[in-house]
Amino acid sequence: MHCNQFFLRTFISRIVRNKRFGKVKVMKKFSIQIGRIKSRVAKKGIRMKIWVERKERSHRLIVKGAEFEKAFPLSKDLEQEDVQKVMSQLKISS
User: Fold this and answer.
1) How many helices (H) and strands (E) are present in the chain, helices listed first?
2) How many CB atoms sit inside 10 A of residue 78's CB?
3) Taking phi first (over 0 means left), then psi (-120 to 50 degrees means alpha), and beta for anything else, what does residue 18 get?
4) Where do the DSSP E strands lie in the chain?
5) What is the dihedral sign for C-alpha 43, 45, 49, 54?
6) Which residue has the higher pLDDT, 40 or 19?
7) What mean pLDDT is reported for the chain?
8) In this structure, is the dihedral angle defined by the CA atoms of residues 72, 74, 79 and 85, taken in order, positive or negative?
9) Which residue has the higher pLDDT, 52 or 7?
10) Does residue 36 contact residue 30 with C-beta atoms inside 8 Å?
């Protein structure tokens, strides 16, 4: 059972057991809880999307870096500035 479904079932069972709540109060409380759950799910979805994008970018950079090292074996010993110069020269010549 999903966590949110469990939460809603326990919340509803508490309301049913507790008779002192009026119908309006129950509906108001219930809608507030639903809103909170929806916002949590939306935030998790955004976080997941960002995480996936970062993973894809990291993988892409690793693959491209490996291809660069394969094409230029001596590039392993270069500093970052030297790599940037080589890349800018490649960009200019293209």
Assistant:
1) 3, 0
2) 13
3) beta
4) none
5) positive
6) 40
7) 78
8) negative
9) 52
10) no
The model's pTM: 0.52
Token pair 């940037």 is found at: 84
Residue count of the chain: 94
Give the amino acid at 90.
L
Residue 19, SS3 per DSSP = coil
24-29: list long-range contacts, CB under 8 Å, 24+ apart: none
Output the CA–CA distances (angstroms, integers) from residue 61 to 27, 46, 56, in the order listed: 51, 23, 9
Specify which of 18-27, 29-38, 77-86 reaches the highest per-range mean pLDDT.
77-86
What's the one-letter identity of residue 69? E
